[in-house]
Amino acid sequence: MNVVVIGGGAAGLKAASRIRRKDGDASITVVEAGKYVSLGRCGLPYYVGGLVHEVDNLRETTYGAVRDEAYFKKLKNIDVLTETVATEIDRSRKTVKIVRNGSEDELNYDYLVIATGARPAKPPIEGIEAEGVVTLTSAEEAEKIIEMWEEGAEKAVVIGAGFIGLESAEALKNLDMEVTVIEMMDRVAPAMLDREMAVLVENHLREKGVNVVTSTRVEKIVSQDDKVRAVIANGKEYPADVVVVATGIKPNSELAEKAGLKIGETGAIWVDEYMRTSDESIYAGGDCVETTCLVTGKKIIAPFGDVANKQGRVIGENITGGRAVFPGVIRTAIFKVFDFTAASAGVNEQMAKEAGLDYFTVIAPSPDRAHYYPQANYIRLKLIVEKGSWRVIGAQGVGMGEVAKRIDVLSTAIQAGMTIDQLANLDLAYAPPYSPALDPVITIANVAMNKRDGLFEGINVFELKEKLEKEDIVILDVRSEEEFKTRRIESEKVIHIPILELRERLDEIPRDKEIVVVCAIGLRSFEASRILKHAGFEKVKILEGGMAFWF
Amino acid sequence: MNVVVIGGGAAGLKAASRIRRKDGDASITVVEAGKYVSLGRCGLPYYVGGLVHEVDNLRETTYGAVRDEAYFKKLKNIDVLTETVATEIDRSRKTVKIVRNGSEDELNYDYLVIATGARPAKPPIEGIEAEGVVTLTSAEEAEKIIEMWEEGAEKAVVIGAGFIGLESAEALKNLDMEVTVIEMMDRVAPAMLDREMAVLVENHLREKGVNVVTSTRVEKIVSQDDKVRAVIANGKEYPADVVVVATGIKPNSELAEKAGLKIGETGAIWVDEYMRTSDESIYAGGDCVETTCLVTGKKIIAPFGDVANKQGRVIGENITGGRAVFPGVIRTAIFKVFDFTAASAGVNEQMAKEAGLDYFTVIAPSPDRAHYYPQANYIRLKLIVEKGSWRVIGAQGVGMGEVAKRIDVLSTAIQAGMTIDQLANLDLAYAPPYSPALDPVITIANVAMNKRDGLFEGINVFELKEKLEKEDIVILDVRSEEEFKTRRIESEKVIHIPILELRERLDEIPRDKEIVVVCAIGLRSFEASRILKHAGFEKVKILEGGMAFWF
């Protein structure tokens, strides 16, 4: 059996390796246009930022062997051809035309794997081809940033505040550059986070000295002597010695399209659940294919290293006679930026609306371990819950503590179709160093049930800011004297009554006005809202998430 | 509505608080025999060890209010009676007899909540009542340990190596005591871990200077002037100024039993899924009730703080007209001991056997984040998989890295009834600081599928040790020269061929003997076993988990 794999990234090499593990005799050839195969590109920001010392670390095995051509030949008897471009697929003859060292050749296949990946989607901005504008998607670009830094680059602009943009911002800041991030949308990480969650990340970036500019479109990149000098956005000039463009990717589907393979609505290669293209001898996986969002049922592109690895395994399994399935994804994603983790799974509000889903949301900050245990940190979670089925369809988490664990649990729960009632009874691992007695996941499920069952009415920080400006409301802050002194909502509409005094001081609160109760994380305001309701107050709301979401 | 709650721990106070949140008018009285209510007893080892500075920290809210009688009265209008003992329940008259300050009284109830908790199950060891023998289950006992330490106690023996025993061992070691842990079973944490996993914890304890003695029954506690002096076990004397007994708990079900309520087969109070006892006006929750293991269907006692909190909420919900359900647990548990985390969910092998389940197991060490990322640590996971359904029914994790996250994901997957095939496609959050491209959970699911599908045959470290002694086998170590030099299996049966040379050096390996391939974590040995199989070698096995499990 002859197998040709086009693309030496995660999907292609995982497929090739899996085929070898199952079939000792197959002839397997991997064709890669670039200089390296099997490079963990997700690690490039950490290489630039100095946490990872050698680019080669990103293509090493866990036991320190560099995954180069010799490695694949010796260990797996796989022929890897680097700096080799596949130019054409002839499906009737089952051949691939390749160009290597300037000369053409042809490879025969019984099975072909297309794993051509994706390329940065550079927006049509004037000047974007200037020297000094990079994308941080290859080892070469990473080296170039370091080189510019060594030559004295001091100011950087990152265009696009998705997770690669923000990881790049941190890396550049770690090199002591002045960093500005410019994002077209109204928030950072718009494909993951809703606005009240994104604001927390933005504030953390600002605390760390990164300039964050949202709702702003880059108009022009200005060069001098063909070297980048500044970025113009909203009429303002941002000086820049380095510009990192991180505005998404475009699947490399052209070779497949030219061969007449079915291209999906997303512009990526269409595959079935066996990762097979419209030609049964040709499989495809990784960033060049589209997959299914298991929450909305829609086709999407999920350009993640973990997805590529899983798809590669499925391809290898099926080419060697198996019937493995890759069902799809729920868009789970995570990034670290300085001391913060931000993560999401399933849909955010924007995606839920676009998919026509009927939902409600709930937010809840919670300590990530027993609050008396050293290093306990508040994390902020948000759930999107489908009305009627009461299933969790989306989750977001932000904060300094153990966010990753909670998003992975919620991701698993979303994939299992769990309801908030089931979530509330999850048997999670509790001990003080790892979780409060009620894990943040259980707590937010409880909050969601309370909201569903009408035990409180919540508003978010944006709604409160608007109400504060336009309506004659009362804000009832029920925190302690000390908390109130330290940081509060500055307005004459605020009444301060510590929660332990509330039952005795109810007559200080006007009964004719809408009352919004505020505390640190939403717990005491819930308690207070119940006291007020039981005392006959009618229009009582709480600021969901409390001061932890105020900005 | 009159509600009486017997027991001021997590279940009782959660129930009481929930009732108040839903019902402003109910009269709620909580009766507690001890001095404190709402004390987070799981935190006591950290108080003894010096990580938590005040006992009161363990009964504070997240915002620093001490949960005492006044707190419950002011905030929740709940009457808390401490140092008050409930002596009798009269179900026909719906009254509870209490003794307070030496005088008797009676409380009427419409609903009664029994949350009497559990007490340490002290084994019938001669001398166990001596001064200096404690259980670390109350603030008073914790204070006593600290006092003895301040008075110069230097040597401690912990009887029982469950998680409380091990947490206590760490706390005592943190006070610079000489610590010996004595366990009757053949391993530490026997209710959670199988032997090959437990051995890793034992070795870590020894590295930290704790003396661990397993398969050993304590015969006698020796005192002098009524003060403990030593523990005798297996004929050996272990000097001790302090003895901590941590040999499990016994539910306080006597009051319920005396009232004629149904007691379950476990000796704890029987409740239905609504947490209602056999009397529909009486609910019960926490350590005094039994619950259902959702994997085996058996009744068990699950004396965990998180379970008590969840049950308390269900009770409060149902007493106020709701229909909330507590379905049961899967015995998820976790503990930290020095730099190690150990955790489990579902059944271990012993439980699976006892329940008559047909299963196979798989183990896999894996880095907890991208191996090139700083602070990456190897964690060791184990799965118990039901044959036929291929569902995961048990999971264990041990190591220095992010074990907690993986066990929580696996716990969620077990509760959702996921198969190893579904597990392999879980969409978990990947970025280098949080996970390798394939999360350890995905990796072990892949290993499990490989084992199920016959792609390798594994043996564990105990089987290999036995084979090494009794059979004419070959151990093929495929690690690098450097790894081999650093630490290896010392035997003339070992052949060392680094994996990258294996294909060229196959003729050095005898074809007539059984071959056990060994590497660092099991990955290269799997690869090597495939190469050998394809080359016609017939009797090839691999040491599952590799040298990471060798001891």
TrEMBL record, chains A, B:
GO terms for molecular function: metal ion binding; nucleotide binding; oxidoreductase activity. CoA binds at K14, R18, R21, K76, N309, R313, Y430, N450, I521. Its cofactor is FAD. SMART domains: RHOD. It comes from the Archaea. Ca(2+) binds at D306, T332, D427, L428. Pfam families: Pyr_redox_2, Pyr_redox_dim, Rhodanese. Keywords: Calcium, FAD, Flavoprotein, Metal-binding, Nucleotide-binding, Oxidoreductase, Redox-active center. SUPFAM superfamilies: FAD/NAD(P)-binding domain, FAD/NAD-linked reductases, dimerisation (C-terminal) domain, Rhodanese/Cell cycle control phosphatase. InterPro entries: FAD-bd_OxRdtase, FAD/NAD-bd_sf, FAD/NAD-binding_dom, FAD/NAD-linked_Rdtase_dimer_sf, Pyr_nucl-diS_OxRdtase_dimer, Rhodanese-like_dom, Rhodanese-like_dom_sf. Residues 469-550 form the Rhodanese domain. FAD 2 binds at A11, E32, R41, A86, D287, P303, G305, Y430. FAD 1 binds at A10, A11, E32, R41, A86, D287, G305, Y430. Belongs to the class-III pyridine nucleotide-disulfide oxidoreductase family. This is NADH oxidase (NoxA-3). It comes from Archaeoglobus fulgidus (strain ATCC 49558 / DSM 4304 / JCM 9628 / NBRC 100126 / VC-16). The lineage of its organism: Archaea, Methanobacteriati, Methanobacteriota, Archaeoglobi, Archaeoglobales.
